[in-house]
């Protein structure tokens, strides 16, 4: 399950970023997962729940992972119809053309995270 290493990558990257910003606790992380990305949302969540208590001093059992789904959309290059494809390679439901381009749905990225800054006083 490659979601385990993806979850670890997310935790590592955010921990590094938070340290530079003097953030000492991360309360939530927003991740965008496209319907046609190769990431399974449930598996990523499970991996995160497993890792969050032991992988970073800035993250604990209270840290939330918010998964934002991105719907897959294709556009027909012939008739410009936009539709929701079942697969990366899609046939236009209107004109039957096969040269459709995927315009969303492959995204996998951390959108943002929330945390608390270290109180200097
Ligand atoms: Zn078409």
Descriptive report:
This protein has 121 residues and is of the alpha+beta class. It has a single domain (3-116), classed as 2-Layer Sandwich (hypothetical protein PF0899 fold), CATH 3.30.2320.80. Helices cover 24% and strands 33% of the residues. The strands form 2 sheets. It has a 3-stranded mixed sheet. A 3-stranded antiparallel sheet has the order 4-3-5, with no helix packed on it. α1 (3-20) crosses α2. The structure holds zinc ion. Zinc ion binds at residues 76, 78-79, 81, 92, 94-95, 97.
Radius of gyration: 19 Å
Q: What count of helical segments does DSSP give?
A: 2
Give me the side-by-side strand order of the main sheet: 2-1-6
If classified by CATH, what would the architecture be? Answer: 2-Layer Sandwich
- Largest beta-sheet characterization: 3 strands, mixed
- Percent of residues in helices: 10-25%
What is the name of the CATH topology? hypothetical protein PF0899 fold
Task: From the structure above, extract its key features.
single chain, 121 residues, alpha+beta, hypothetical protein PF0899 fold, 3-stranded mixed beta sheet, 3-stranded antiparallel beta sheet, 2 helices
Briefly characterize the structure.
With 121 residues, this protein is of the alpha+beta class. It has helices spanning 3-20, 41-51; strands at residues 23-34, 64-70, 73-76, 82-83, 100-104, 108-117. Zinc ion binds at residues 76, 78-79, 81, 92, 94-95, 97.
Give the arrangement of secondary structure elements.
Layout (H helix, E strand, L loop, with lengths): L2 H18 L2 E12 L6 H11 L12 E7 L2 E4 L5 E2 L16 E5 L3 E10 L4
Parallel strand pairs: 1-2
Antiparallel strand pairs: 1-6, 3-4, 3-5
Helix pairs in contact: 1-2
Zinc ion binds next to loops.
């Amino acid at each position: 399950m490659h979601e385990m290493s993806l979850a670890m990558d997310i935790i590592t990257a955010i921990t590094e970023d938070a340290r530079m910003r003097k953030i000492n606790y991360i309360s939530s992380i927003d991740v965008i997962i496209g319907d046609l990305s190769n990431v399974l949302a449930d598996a990523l969540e499970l991996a995160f729940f497993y890792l969050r208590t032991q992988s970073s001093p800035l993250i604990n059992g209270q840290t939330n992972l918010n998964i934002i789904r991105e719907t897959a959309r294709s556009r027909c290059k012939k008739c410009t119809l936009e539709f929701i494809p079942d697969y990366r390679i899609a046939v236009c439901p209107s004109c039957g053309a096969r040269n459709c381009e995927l315009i969303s749905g492959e995204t996998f990225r951390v959108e943002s995270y929330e945390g608390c800054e270290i109180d200097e006083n």
